[in-house]
Design goal:
230 residues, alpha/beta, eight-stranded mixed β-sheet, three-stranded mixed β-sheet, 3 helices, 11 strands
């Protein structure tokens, strides 16, 4: 049984990291249940393990936190649902690529409950929304906006960090970074797309779609698995 926690108000980032690391250790020792923690943060930037200094374009705008998750720079702030996933990947097949695909499928399934189609794109981390209403890129390719970011870390086969989904954040706040190091495409949110979705609505969709994705029979095998256990 996975424990679900929803925190009201804005959660301090350092406090969130300390909680996740302690809970992941307890899960690995068999002393605590797996956990999904839903939070919002005050405006801040986080730098993943692959972050490049040139992608922090406004370093004095918001606090910047080094993060142990994979990935590059991302923004967190009010109106964005951050989903911290403390799950035992060791008991879920020990296939990191499959686990990440399940996280992506989870977000896409939750978005589908609002009639929205999310996409995964090779070479572009996260979940993307096609924007035919916007002018194409200079090379003629269609423009797409990012609605969700994914970045995890594993320790002793237990995950922490996780997913952020834009419900109604201030999208201008993303301008202080190159989100996830990807240029050309933009960011969007559920409300920006014209969907009157509340945080509670998204939480409900995440919970119902989690059961469908993570309690279904395994859809990935272990061929080519990438056992990141640092």
């Amino acid at each position: 049984m996975v424990e679900w926690i929803i925190s009201d108000g804005l959660t301090d980032y350092d406090a969130a990291t300390a909680f996740m690391e302690a809970r992941a250790e307890a899960i690995a020792r068999g002393e605590a249940r797996e956990c999904i923690w839903l939070v919002e943060h005050p405006p801040l930037y986080t730098a993943g393990t692959s972050a490049r200094p040139e992608d922090l374009t406004q370093p004095d705008r918001f606090p910047v936190y080094p993060s142990k998750r994979g990935g590059q720079y991302t923004y967190h702030g009010p109106g964005q649902r951050v989903v911290y996933v403390m799950l035992d990947v060791g008991k879920r097949g020990r296939d990191v690529r499959c686990f990440v695909r399940d996280l992506e499928a989870w977000v896409i399934a939750a978005l589908a409950e609002f009639g929205l189609t999310g996409h995964i794109r090779p070479g572009r981390v996260g979940v993307w929304i096609e924007r035919p209403d916007k002018a194409p890129l200079p090379d003629g390719s269609a423009r797409e906006d990012k609605i969700a970011a994914i970045g995890i870390r594993l320790r002793r086969w237990v995950s922490f960090h996780g997913i952020s989904i834009n419900v109604e954040p201030d999208l201008e706040h993303f301008s202080g970074i190159v989100p996830c190091g990807i240029r050309g495409h933009g960011v969007t949110s559920l409300v920006d797309l014209g969907l009157p979705v509340t945080m509670a609505d998204l939480d409900s969709a995440l919970r119902s779609s989690f059961e469908r994705v993570f309690n279904a029979p395994a859809s990935c095998d272990n061929t080519g698995s990438n056992p990141v256990t640092a």
